[in-house]
């Protein structure tokens, strides 16, 4: 291993450690999470968009049921990767049903 390899690794770590900044002045909805995590974008993608242990634990904590994940596919017209996820979530409101069916289309 050469000194240049060490320098390249240091530069990659510095790039990964940079905090992301959002150019938006406001966001709709409610804030669910506001924290800095020492993760690469690739690791975060794997956690959120694959059938990972983190993904399963997240839905377990949210009390999601009947989770069905489709495989990632390429859209013929747009060439974008997409998949569909469906699940049931508990609804905690007196005037609502006990659960709600959710279908996510991820692109």
Automatic annotation (TrEMBL):
PANTHER family: GRAM DOMAIN CONTAINING 1B, ISOFORM E. This is GRAM domain-containing protein 1B. Keywords: Membrane. GO terms for molecular function: sterol binding; sterol transfer activity. Signal peptide: none annotated. The keyword Membrane applies. Residues 1-19 have a biased composition (Acidic residues). Its main location: membrane. It comes from the Eukaryota. InterPro entries: Cholesterol_transport, VASt. Residues 28-107 form the VASt domain. One of its GO terms (cellular component) is endoplasmic reticulum-plasma membrane contact site. Residues 1-20 are annotated as: Disordered. It holds the Pfam family VASt. GO terms for biological process: intracellular sterol transport. It is found in: Membrane.
